[in-house]
Amino acid sequence: MKMMHAFCPAAALLALAALWPAPAQADARHEAYLKTAQAFVEQHRLPDGETIPSEEIDGDFAGNKMAICDVDGDGKPELLLSFTTAPMASQQEFVCGFDEGAGKITVKGTAFPGAEYCTGGCVKEPTAHNQGLGGDFWPYAVSQYDPKTGKYEARGSVDAWSKKAYPTNPYENDKPFPQNIDAVGDGFVYFIDDEGFAGAKGMDKPVDTPVYQEWIKTRCPGTPIKVDWIPANGYGLKELETK
Q: 158: Cβ–Cβ under 8 A, 6 or more apart, which residues?
């Protein structure tokens, strides 16, 4: 299913003065972002202060990505750094903001690379591995930006069981697909882990597609934001200066 994307290049934000901080704050923010991006590219230092050991870098570091875009909906751009040239367990993506009072970078949240940022400040984060029953459905978690804390807060996760991919469950003695749960007959049931959602039954009790649709509508009703990623190298730093 194709989804409409919300257009969000940093250049467009610059044109919207009402959504942009005062010039001095914007300059300080931009300078801090550039310094953080430069440390990432040249020293392999992450925004949390950790330096990536050379033995953990797999391939060309330019395969990593950077971007500046308002992804949390606070009207100010964030710096995004995506570290993927590493073993799966070490890969991560940072959403960085700027504390105007302290004059320093803050980490608003981290996610596994490939996260989908949506309008309204929610993000869908894929799991590192898909060893479940969902077939083409990749399990993911949802987080929501909280302007009170300045951080992304967890809002639940979901996995699925595809009847086409797995007519039976090989992890539970070939237990058959729960057709009685699949009332709409689309061949999918879902496992929702979210104590704050009434329809969720946890990761061991499946629910039907309409319940899943209501859950994601409640937890992340926004549309995907188009993030303009650039490579984490010298050319990328030059381009970042213009953002």
A: 139, 140, 141, 142, 190, 191, 192, 193, 212, 215, 216
Residue ranges per domain, the chain? Answer: 1-113+223-243, 122-221
Distance CA 125, CA 22 (A): 32
Is there a contact between 166 and 137 (Cβ–Cβ < 8 Å)? Answer: no
Q: Looking at the predicted structure, is the pLDDT value of residue 4 above 60?
A: no
Burial (CB < 10 A; 0-12, 13-18, 19+), residue 204, is exposed
Cα end-to-end distance, the chain, whole Å: 32
Q: What is the pTM of this model?
A: 0.85
Query: What are the structure tokens assigned to 45, written together?
Result: 């230092």
| β-bridge partners, 168 | 176
Do 153 and 147 form a contact (C-beta atoms < 8 A)?
Answer: no
What is the SS3 assignment for 89?
helix
Q: Which two tokens stand for residue 100?
A: 């105007």
Give per-residue pLDDT as tens, 155-203: 999 999 999 999 999 999 999 999 999 999 999 999 999 988 988 888 8
Taking CB atoms within 8 Å and a gap of at least 24, the contacts of 27-32 are: 28/98, 28/100, 28/103, 29/76, 29/77, 29/98, 29/100, 30/243, 32/98, 32/103, 32/104, 32/105
State the Cα–Cα distance between residues 154 and 164, nearest whole angstrom: 31
Q: What is the pLDDT of residue 200?
A: 84
Q: Which tokens is 182 given?
A: 């699949």
